[in-house]
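Regression report. Comparing outputs from two consecutive submissions.

Submission 1:
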Amino acid sequence: MASGDCTSFGGAITPIRLTLTHSRSYIKQMKHHLPVFSEISSSSEQIAGSEGLLTEIFLRLPPKSLLRFQCVSKHWLSLISNAHFHRLHTLRNATSSASTVGVFLCRHPNYDFLALNEERISEMGRIYDRLSDLRGSKVVCNINSCNGLLCVGFKSDDAKTDFYIYNLTTGHQRYIPVPDTMVVKSMNLAFDPKISDDYYVVCVWFSVSENRLRFSVYSSGSGIWRHSNEHCNKVDLCSYGGVFWKGAVHWFSQTSPFLCLQVETCVFKSMPSTNIPEGQWYRNIEYFGESGGHLHLIEIHMPQDIEFDVLELKSDYSCWFVKYRVNLEFLTNLYPIMVNQEVYPPEDYNFPYAFSTLCFLTDEENRARVLISLPGKIVVFDIHNGMVKELADIQPDSFRNFIGGARYDCFDAYKYVETLAFV
């Protein structure tokens, strides 16, 4: 019988008689333990009555628990919702992609949230509902995430796009005013809670008069846009979101050198690119993102490849090096639909394997995992122990509409970590 279940038995109900044969010794034992019970009760009252002790305990708890504890009493609500407490908690529990609990998936015009474990499924549902209320009848577009905050654009029927910074944990949002002179191509978040509770929005916009891309940086602290003197003509820079790492936003290109803009100075910084394979005019980068305090990249050199390297950029920006080598051939036995001839004849399709890498994840214990999208499923593969776990079933509208036959790719996925950071 499961704990908490009730089972009834047939027949007459017989009263239970309690025989206290050792009542005196029991009373003596109770007297002996009463001071202990009193001490526990007294300690609890002291903690509950001490604002300093409560604050110290709350600072050690995750945001999810704190949001629930706000309902315990007005006193707790006042402590937890206090702006100073939010700043302290955000600083002490500086979030990073190492603590990713979910992934926001968006492929125009649809979006969804994917929990990385079962405990988070209902939470992802609440986040989805909140974002749906904020969106209304508008279309979600131009998304970027960084350390728990989400930059999202909502496009209305008149083609006007409003941009918001959204905290997925608290549900708070902030409207970002964009000058009419800036034709926005991409919005990129820069937020490092270990350094400041302010965040920055790096906008890549098209200057019609100059016929080139320009860069501007918005500060949440000042509410002012700073315009950089830097510019570029890399058209595909707008196709992929930038990645914030070490005080700068980084962009990759499939055909040109990579780009790095320092947020504080609004000045370009040199960074190495990967080589374009001989005989090709482009790279085939499948993933570009930050994880565990490092910048990573996954590149598949040939469409026929089912193995790939996870590259990591050295902290001194000197070069990219191979961090992990991954071979997914064993997955074709578990999921035969990965082999595209199961869906289309080989002569009709250039990609023999249908999969995409959504995210590369490392946690506090340096455990490396890859989130993989297959036709009909999303799975997570642990590089260290070789284990595969199914996370979700999905229904592709048409495999032919998606890169490599998979439902999503890395440019549709945005990491979600918990934070109490103000927006």
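Submission 2:
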Amino acid sequence: MSTAANTQSADPRTAPSREQRTPSALRGVLSLARAELTLLLRNRTAIFNTMLIPLVLVVALYFIGVPSDAGPGNLLVITASVMAMAYIVYYNLVTTYVARRESYVLKRMRTGTVSDLGILVAAALPSIVLALLQISIVVLGAFVIGSPPSLNNALAVVVGVVLGFIAFAGLAAASTPITKTAETAQVTTLPVVMISMGLSGMFFSLSILPDTLETIARFTPGAAVVELLQTGLSGIDRYGNVIAGFPEALAAMTRPTLVLLMWVAITFALVRDRFAWEPRR
């Protein structure tokens, strides 16, 4: 009887297949993401900022006017995208990870069926949803003020937004080991936020910087996102030259895409080796 039982338990037909496990894992991630989104929606300050910041940005650029090769509508979208990645995704996600860690929520999550990567992704999805909402409000505002953004290469826009979200979410996870509490995140996240925005090339061409500083700036995730969005929306390269066709656009996309992939790889390695799932006393 034991032999028969062992044979039956070893029968591959009785074990869950990969196809069966994958939907289950996806459902677990989405379930955690819904719970995180519910908590985030209760944060009225976060929701208020998500709605207010893009409106202020639209009004400010409309009345002040910032000269740019990208055009006013495209500049609005590019600026909103980098701000959303730096603040809503990066900063907000650092505070989320740290708060969940300090309350032992992350540790308890690891006892479930969702993988470590799935837990981190689930926590990041609500912030990404809010970031997309903020960008959408800015796009709508650009149409309202009569400066709608253009679209020259959808692939460059998608690559810039998707890889930008992943890179900044990875930076958030990589920043949690040096952030003791959610309150200290205001200090530990400041360098990434300032560098990502200040050296992104949103408001001025990076080519006006000294050669060494320009080279350093080109390797920041913010600058890579701006370069891809300029290619996709305005059809210009990093120096403001008009891109003639799709092959030239692909060539212009290569370097910033590799920069973002580099940041994704670096942050993945750091998170794998150094991410803390419980408080370090």
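Expected: both submissions complete independently.
Actual: both completed, but the second showed a warning that disappeared on reload.
Relevant detail on submission 2: Residues 26-274 form one domain.
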